[in-house]
Amino acid sequence: MRVLVVEDEAMLAEAIAEGLRRRAMAVDVCGDGASALELTAVHPYDVIVLDRDLPTVHGDDVCRAVLAAGGESRVIMLTAAGDLADRVQGFGVGADDYLTKPFAFAELVARVQALGRRARAAVPPVLRRAGVELDVPRHQVSRDGRFVSLSRKEFAVLEVLMRADGSVVSAEELLEKAWDSNVDPFTNAVRMAVMTLRRKLGSPPLIETVAGVGYRLKD
Q: CATH assignment of 2-119?
């Protein structure tokens, strides 16, 4: 899942981002509405965690722009303005969810995960293929009953490949979905992650390289 956190309180923004990254999400952060509009024009975010009272461009206007652009991004407004009129107004400009500050981080994670499922075609929370079982909510992977310990990025790459259900996924698409915008587009991070995944998943080999195209999971 790829998430954009738009929050002008820098420490809060980074705390939210780091917490989501620990759950294998790719997270970008910005602190004003204009930057949010620039990022959403370039990257297809699954979920946008959006503060309402933002500098340069108000959060309501960012939400309206995201809605007008189409796409599948879901917006959760995260704001101190929490009375009924504020919530109604937030939903009125296009927000999919609304969470007031202060909040429990576990609740934010649950809401982001729920919105992320709505942003994509419905899939079960536990993905299975060729003896591999990937439990998204519990962040656990096993193959033929054997627990497989993966890093956050390895888990994210495997999830993208399993959701593709045998279709080829390019290295560029893996970078887009499993890394944030700070990644070097010329990095070999995808190749290294796939290589490590192959080793950890064991035999028979599960991830196939399609020369010049990308990667896919065998049946």
A: 3.40.50.2300
